[in-house]
Write a structure and sequence with these properties.
This protein is an alpha+beta fold. Helices cover 48% and strands 20% of the residues.
Length: 197
Amino acid sequence: MFELSSALSGETGQCFHIGGRWVSPSGIRRTPVASPSTEMELLPVPLGDTRDVDRAVAAARTAFDHGPWPRMSAPERAAHLRWPADEVRRRLRLAARLWTAQVGAPVAFAEGLVQAGGSRFDHFAELAGSYAFHDRRPTFRGHARVIREPVGVAALFVPWNATFSILAHKIPAALAADCAVVVKSPPEGPLDTLVVA
């Protein structure tokens, strides 16, 4: 087992990432993240309450309504998605160690599966740059225009047993489609989400 306090930044496990910055939780409730292998507490993390959820949704909605992301062209979004792909790749070893610590997955298994994380960001960056968000289709009366538009704020729920892998699929997919995101991480294994943030 590795020492979490030396592997994570000071904000990770203490704050929430809302509106592009680390913010203190509204409440004081905390829950222990425990190792399923040893049952030892790894780190206590804050539990969000309705005020934290409201702040996160409001920040994401503001980013969607007024920020630059939804107004970028698909190729611009694709270029920006390559940066988190590189950042995720830099943290793959940490992600594998966190998965093993929080879930009890064998190290070799965790290392193998987290490798796909950077690849998924790359995949959606490529898709964002080449996907036909505007399409013209033949119909029996001529043609129809099909326009795929973002829904706004996407609420992404991730499970305890494969948090990193599912985050690496959901986040870039939503961003490639122009959406802002709010992630609800599992209280049993929230550290992957905080590291990705």
